[in-house]
Design goal:
Helices cover about 40% and strands about 25% of the residues. The chain is α+β, with helices and mostly antiparallel strands and about 200 residues long. The protein has a three-stranded antiparallel sheet with strand order 1-3-2. It starts with a strand and ends with a strand. Forms a complex with KhpA.
Amino acid sequence: MKKLVAIGKTVEAAVRSGLSQLGVEENRVQVTILEHPSRGLFGLIGSKDAKVELSVKPDGVEEAILFLREVTGAMELAVTVERSEEADHTTINLAGEELGILIGRRGQTLDSLQYLTNIVANRHSDKHLRIVLDAENFRERRKQTLEALSERMASRVIRSKREVVLEPMSSQERKIIHSRLQSNPHVKTYSQGDEPNRSIVIAPK
């Protein structure tokens, strides 16, 4: 935990000075008052400034980003990191060249790295964090692919009146297909099997 001792004429002034030096907001620090200010004899002799210690609280998402920089650096990949806050999660998008190695086959490597990133983030946070890791907007492109696949397979099920079992997918990808077909009046979807080989079944209603 990063710490800094700051002084000022008042406790408030000392805190402001410390925040300015650290470059953080007040809600990111824990303040310990080391010395209260005193006016001294006649308000002149022996007067003391206030002294405070500011301890920066760890930020889980920032720690996760540092972890990702270390991983990509070790792989000698030049990436830029973009962070965006959503209603129920934080998205971290990695941009750069030759990121296919980070994505892997159908995003499997990216999913594994996302799992590790969430572990790091929550280790440094006092509240539960959910991080979605993306690379070159792969998640959106994969979502579009899965939605198109679900429509094609639903049409096949309707024509043949026989169920179709899709390849094993992550829970995140299965959710995309369930959501896409939930309003289709002719088919239903459910999952079968055990992780990590759990698959979606599209069946006629």
